[in-house]
Amino acid sequence: MNEVLIAGLYVFVLAAFLGYQVISRVPPLLHTPLMSATNAISGISLIGSIVTAGAKYNTTSTILGVVAVTAATINVVGGFIITDRMLKMFRRETKSTRPGEAGKK
Amino acid sequence: MSAQTLLTELSYFIASILFILGLRGLSHPDTARRGMFMAEFGMLLAVIGTLLHRDIVSYEWIIVGLLAGSTIGVAMGLWVPMTAMPQRTALSHAFGGLAAALVGVSEFLRHGEHLGTFKVTALGFEVLLGGITFTGSLVAFAKLQELLKGQPITYKGQNVLNFLLFASAVVIFIALVLNPGHTVFFYAMCALALLFGVLLVLPIGAADMPVVIALLNSYAGLASAATGFALGNNVLIIAGTLDGGSGFILSILMCKAMNRSITNVLFGAFGSASAAGPETGEEGVMREVSLEDVATQLAYARKVVFVPGYGMATAQAQNAVRELATHLESRGVEVKYGIHPVAGRMPGHMNVLLAEANVPYSQLYELEQINPEMPTTDVAVVIGANDVVNPEARDNPKSAIAGMPIIEVDRAKSVIVLKRGRGKGFSGLENPLFFKPVTGLLFGDAKTSLARLAAAVSEL
After folding, report:
1. In chain A, where the domains are located
2. B439-443 and B364-366 strand pairing
3. Which residues of chain B have pLDDT under 50?
4. Is the Cβ pair B39, A41 closer than 8 Å?
5. Residue B274's pLDDT is what?
6. Which of B251, B283, B388, B440 is the most exposed place for a label (fewest CB within 10 A)?
7. Considering only CB atoms, which chain B residues are within 8 Å of A49?
8. CB–CB of B57 and A8 under 8 A?
């Protein structure tokens, strides 16, 4: 046991409680955007990958790092774009669409 | 602490706060986009902060990775159709698991035997969870994309084999923690995790994918959190835990919506022939109705409720539904949509498709909200849904889906079921709804039927 571990456990447990509170309040309506949003946010492992790719520890490390950076970036960039695309579609009231116009963007 | 490190840490601190605020925004559609902008800004800060990290000596490979990832990410983000959202989500879980696992492998390569017990444990979790998520999500993707057949793939002794695999992975994990220098343990564990991921998802049917996707979401998040422990980085722990928790909550919700336990979903191979429970034997004739009849019924109804299922997504019928609804509304008919939590292939799937087709979210009703309205509904239209409206779940305690909450369309004054053919649904269960006197069946492709209904209604 060391201090880093204990501090980490505190953060973990508090984040879990907070996450439970915050996420329970997300309505089922938004569950798909929620999933792609949390997915984009957990792409934060990108920052671990960036250090691995740029630190020149050794060649294998660099290669693994570059692949990891690519994979994580796909999630971050793609995830946020898709989440926004979905959220843009949720509207409270109908725009004055006439029959025949429905679904066209 | 140097000024450089201070800046990096500060960026992580702000990012953590912004992520939490961002997710809080998702509690309402009106605040959701603003919330996501905060989360995006947080991510940008964290990445810039990381680029200042003292270990980084060269940037060329980082830039290569960032550019490649952004290119693919933008392409996927802009062009993946909403109907393919379940596949896309499964694929992104695979990427998330892969990234976490690779960072773990690289850390292990670098430090090897010099790792302390705590760090090896964290790395072990990271690689185990990352590996399982990676291959498991790829299998889920293949099933959703129909590269693999959607039915459960089962064989004799499957659960025993899976259990043995998992148990040996755990044993090797413990051995590794006790002897961090033994590289061979580490690679054996990686290999087992990858294999276990495949075998875990293979036996799960496509109809259970909402649970599996949510569960893999949770694993991907926990893998990120484990990375945070291994690197001693709090923003990774926080973001990973939020993702892990969200996936976990969603999988519990999905299980509740099917009245099944997670164990049953994972090891029950639901939807295979053996799982089909005893039936009530409530056979009868299906009453086929003509398009004109349905159009007249709809046009002169006061309240119509549409109940979509995965069939609406496969038929790409969401725009046609909206079209029909618009015609009905212009005649003064009240239109609502009843959305079952597990309709579709991922949580919230139907809501997104209908929102894309311009249905305002104020018309989308959850299960608990729409059921009390059923007795006052003139026509309930079931579009490509089956199990979620199967009255067996309510009436027959011996049914395989007994106790699953359903949308009680059979309490409406009239039910119209749009169906491709006379066959049973995905789970292979008989659905007595189709034989009830109140029910009329309109056979054919849902999209075509709906479009023709819209035309017929507009001419009345």
Report:
1. 36-90
2. unpaired
3. 271-281
4. yes
5. 40
6. B283
7. 65, 99, 102-103
8. no
